[in-house]
């Protein structure tokens, strides 16, 4: 293990910030932090995303994340010190990025969650379903990184097409600004529209059926990363959620940056166990996940039905809304495990999961914008159709 790459202090602090973002969404809005669900529901169904009042908080979260990443983090944050500079950390080829994005998109949609939905939020409330998903995608991610590692003398000739020797192109901030504006400008209009709407107009807005939030119920259709809006919730809730959601997006982006999880080299430095042999393994991700789960776990102790501690401060409703919307499924089924396997494989190929991918798009990373994200959305769309038919 090398102290050159292991960053325990910033890793733990970043984890606390990521957990803080999840806590803000939970305690103020009653919602969970699910990066893949927020993005896929916004892009795959933009009409619903920008017209349904229930979706406006997701737009505020995403816009805040994009703006802060593009204008602040992309300007002052240093580049990845290992990616493209260390022979043991592979740079994905075009095929590698496409496969990685497609697998992550398909897996997160089919398995209903990623490192945030299942990892930060699910494990924090001791969800058996999420624990199973996290164990599955962690094992698969590590296995994939090991099998495709340049140092793997057994498989490297067979996996050479997944990586390239080309130096990664530098981020183009102007490109990230354009990408961000495609979300931010419609979001501003959606927020103005939300505050201009009358209460009766929500009844005609496109909504889906509400799902139960009773912890004692077992609903296999509930998602860790995404859940339906409740048309019975009045517009005041949707309006009150805007500021906490925007704050949560900013804190989430800051947490990812501070922890180093926006760097592919940092993530692959954890997943690739071959690095143990040359002393450059980086276990920082464990501290990031641990710190995030600790803060998120504390937040759940204030939510009725989800904490393990009994005290007088338990809340039956969020601070800015009237109800908690927390997935309650305990079913460990084929879709969950297959989704986790696919997500882990894609994660291990490129070292990118949805949260950092949003950041990389916001700062204008060409390979992620051109190859990873289109494949992610296609994979997510295919998984959505598979779930509709099952």
UniProtKB/TrEMBL annotation:
Membrane topology, record value: Multi-pass membrane protein
Keyword Transmembrane among record annotations: yes
InterPro entries: DUF6691, Sulf_transp_TsuA/YedE
Record region (Disordered): 203-230
Signal sequence interval, chain numbering: none
Compositionally biased spans, kind Polar residues: 204-215
UniProt keyword Repeat present: no
Cellular component aspect of the GO annotation: plasma membrane
Bilayer-spanning residue ranges: 6-28, 59-77, 89-110, 131-149, 174-196, 242-263, 283-303, 336-362, 368-386
Keyword line: Cell inner membrane, Cell membrane, Membrane, Transmembrane, Transmembrane helix, Transport
Cell compartments where the protein resides: Cell inner membrane
Annotated protein name in UniProt: Uncharacterized protein
Organism from which the protein derives: Fistulifera solaris
Lineage, highest ranks first: Eukaryota, Sar, Stramenopiles, Ochrophyta, Bacillariophyta
């Amino acid at each position: 293990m090398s102290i050159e790459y292991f960053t325990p202090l910033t890793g733990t602090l970043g984890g606390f910030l990521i957990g803080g973002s999840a806590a803000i969404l939970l305690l103020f809005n009653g919602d969970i932090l699910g990066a893949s669900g927020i993005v896929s529901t916004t892009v795959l169904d933009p009409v619903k995303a920008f017209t349904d009042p229930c979706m406006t908080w997701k737009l505020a979260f995403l816009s805040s994340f994009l703006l802060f990443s593009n204008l602040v983090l992309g300007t002052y944050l240093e580049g990845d010190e290992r990616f493209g500079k260390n022979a043991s950390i592979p740079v994905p080829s075009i095929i590698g990025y496409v496969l990685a994005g497609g697998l992550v998109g398909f897996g997160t949609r089919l398995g209903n969650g990623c490192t945030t939905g299942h990892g930060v939020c699910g494990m924090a409330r001791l969800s058996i379903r999420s624990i199973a998903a996290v164990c599955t995608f962690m094992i698969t991610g590590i296995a994939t990184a090991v099998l495709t590692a340049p140092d793997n003398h057994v498989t490297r000739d067979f996996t050479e097409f997944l990586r390239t020797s080309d130096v990664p192109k530098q981020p183009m901030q102007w490109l990230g600004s354009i990408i961000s504006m495609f979300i931010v400008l419609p979001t501003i209009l959606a927020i103005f529209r939300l505050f201009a709407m009358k209460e009766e107009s929500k009844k005609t807005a496109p909504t889906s059926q509400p799902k139960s939030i009773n912890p004692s119920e077992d609903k296999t259709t509930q998602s860790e990363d995404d859940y339906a809006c409740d048309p019975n919730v009045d517009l005041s809730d949707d309006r009150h959620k805007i500021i906490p959601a925007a704050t949560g997006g900013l804190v989430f982006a800051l947490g990812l940056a501070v922890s180093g999880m926006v760097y592919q080299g940092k993530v692959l430095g954890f997943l690739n166990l071959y690095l143990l042999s040359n002393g450059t393994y980086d276990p920082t991700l464990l501290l990031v996940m641990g710190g995030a789960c600790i803060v998120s776990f504390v937040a759940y102790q204030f939510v009725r039905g989800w904490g393990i501690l009994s005290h007088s401060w338990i809340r039956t409703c969020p601070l800015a809304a009237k109800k908690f919307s927390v997935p309650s499924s305990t079913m460990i089924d084929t879709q969950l495990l297959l989704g986790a396997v696919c997500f882990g494989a894609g994660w291990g190929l490129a070292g990118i999961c949805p949260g950092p991918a949003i950041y990389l798009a916001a700062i204008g990373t060409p390979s992620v914008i051109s190859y990873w994200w289109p494949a992610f959305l296609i994979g997510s769309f295919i998984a959505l159709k598979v779930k509709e038919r099952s």
